[in-house]
User: Fold these one by one.
Assistant:
Number 1:
Amino acid sequence: MAGLTDFASAEYLNYVTGQLVTPALPAIWMGLFTTAPTSDSGVTGAVEVSGGAYARVQIAGTATTNGTTASGNPTLHFASTPTWIVAGMSIRDVTTAASISAATTVLSTTGTTVTMSANAAGAGVGGTDVICFSAFAPPIASSGAEPATISGFSQNTNTSFSFVQSTASWGTVVAFGLFDAVTSGNLRWWDFLGNFAWKPFSCSSASPGTLTAPAHGYSNGDPVVVTAKFDGTTLPTTGGSWAGALTVAGVSADTFTAGVNTTSVGSGMVRKILQQSVPINITVTFGTSSLTLSLA
């Protein structure tokens, strides 16, 4: 389900067990899915948008300075500022970490400069420092007693960005993924659209099965997805399928149905999602804090 893919997990595991040097900072492009991945491979079952002028959007990467920035000055210098760097992106100096504070973001850009939200610190930024830019803010750690009551996450807290205008229908987008190439490449992480948490549920054997998720907050017609991935439980057996987006109906404070006839009891996790239809001549824009990468 949503989260780190097998590729990215294996890469990090090789690093922490001393089998690889620190992986190079990748350039990252965001892609859109009309059908979300169905396994941790990140490939199985996934259908990415195609046609209609669709192209992934770069949301993270690095650039090398070509001039120094003295402590107390907010301007970074480049031979040519990459066009994908936009206001609100987080900034980190990979070469001289102490020179840029953790909460610093991009205020504005020109063809050769980036103005930061805070002045350079310490010894300042060097003339050939590698600077990392990202549309996502530094992650917020999980909080609460184990199991964590609030899962850790990262959002595009300060950054909005747009895809190209569609020249044909892109279908209905339900999820997004982070890739390490503008085409093909490896999917490293993916998540559903919408800033909604996974909630545990139990389900009856009925036609349709009734899901009980205390204080779920859903409304009739809401799209939701279901998984047993996060808690190791067994979903009820059905005459149909739990796959894909389901539609909430029969809402009460703690229960609802999702159109799935069940032939046994069971339990799992449920999450509300957003679905975005993209017809012809539409520019898809993601506003600040509209995308969440959740740790659970």
Number 2:
Amino acid sequence: MLYDLSKPPYDQTTFDGRFRHFLRLTNPVNVLKTASDLDQARDTVAIYKEKGILPADDGVGLWQAKYLYDSAHHPDTGDRQNIFGRMSFQVPGGMIITGILLAFYRSPLEIFLGQWLNQSFNALVNYTNRSGDSQLDNATIGTAYLTATGIATGVAIGFNKYGLKPLPAALKPLLARFVPFTAVAAANAINIPMMRQNEIKEGIPLFDGEGKRVGSDRRAAAKAINKVVISRITIAAPGMLLLPVIMQGLENKGYKFSRLASCCVQTGLLGVFLLVMVPVGCSLFPQQQSIGVDELEPDVRDKIKSQNPDLRTVYYNKGL
């Protein structure tokens, strides 16, 4: 039996198929693999593509190698990704940082340090998982990073200082716990587009059904980035919205936690949420998106039609 490694073994037109795919791809166990393990996975995949030799008769070892390889390498460029920017690091990285955000949110200094840490992590993840081979200079990366951090910090401090003031005193302790999520959502809406601004300026790579690059388009880039923003907010939402209710409910019943204990409890619970929500968020939309040639920018559309008159649909990687 021959295996087509250019496509996941699960149906990517269904949510269930995408969820099963990303459950394996974002498995946090993958970040524990060594460089030697990744090299071996790369070689296994390369040997199969070149010679058709399977590491196991039923193909299980081949797909294990393929998923391990894909978890650590960019799908377009093949470059090995920074370990902290990989989607397989989203569970350990996200649970620790979000646990800190939810436990330490009261003073301006706590808010600033928490959001600075979170946006540092987000900037790395967004750049690592951008679509295509888009490159950013250090000045652009720095501007995106500082802007997102400033917005997240401003939103959090503003809500704490002004947004909660007119509310009934009984509601303030609970509602104050939702401020970190509001700040994170606002920052994601800024950080992701800014870290991928070259795609907005120059366009996202487009491919035909055979995988041949046929152009780049800015409209497709905007669609891709909007979907990634929605996915990232979806990943964060359940944990950051439900945990404040749970923790406030426990405190109202007389359970008292030190701030360190609160951080540890919420970090552990967040890990459970993220084990499910990271693949769920990644599965909301197919990673390989399609767009009609007639929907592209006029100059891109005309160029593609002149070179490929029969081509009606093109494809692009939206990123993660």
Number 3:
Amino acid sequence: MNNASIAGNVAVIYRPSRSCLDISRHVVEILRNKGIRVRSFWVDDILRHVIGKVDLVVAIGGDGTLLKISRLFQDTTPLVFPIPCGRRKVFYEELEGDIEDYIERVLRGEFYVELLDRVKISYDGKTYKVLNEAAFISRDRGRVIQIRVDVKTPTSISGFIFDGDGILVGPSSGSSAYHLSISGSLMDYYLRGFFVSPLNPMELNIKPYIVPPLSRATIEFINGYVETYIDGERKDTISPRKKVDVELDYEGFRIIRFGGKRNYVREVFEKRTTIFD
């Protein structure tokens, strides 16, 4: 990747904090000094039609910033260069040294691309690509609903029904978030597949289900209205007897990596340690 290929197509998206804003200004100044036209956006205000088509996104923030970028780019997969600046940074690697050196490496193409799977959720003629999880939760809080799950894999067909508060589905990269909080398994990024995890099921023998690639799950909400949350953002209300189809999206969310130090398990659990006064 060289300067000419990204000129006029760089977006800097940053978390609204003083430290992230300072980094954003520094990155924009570096890029403009190299003759590259770049636009910067506050992550909470950006809209899909505003940002337009870009080839490179510089993400300055934490995991929430990256999730918003994933929601913005549903139909395309620009390269994303993450610069950590936030509380939770599971999707980020630590950058040692000056940011300008890393930008130079990006412009020279001295990096590799990590492809993070997203899960494709389809219902009512709508499709969403999910990086963390899609949460389907009973609209009537405190009232359980009945849910049927059917899963077709290359080797088996399975189905079960449970009563609970809802259900989570998401790719391996999302297993460290909401899924982990409901005692789901932590999945390595390189483990392809997706999880189907009941929320507070009445049937205590039902546990999260790890579904292999080349599979498809169908979820039917039998007797209750369900609110849909895509990577933490509320989207729709689904009426009873509607079905949701779930499968892996194989395009991949493209993250720039430099091979720096990453301790995935430590980064996940260290931020979830109880602090006593």
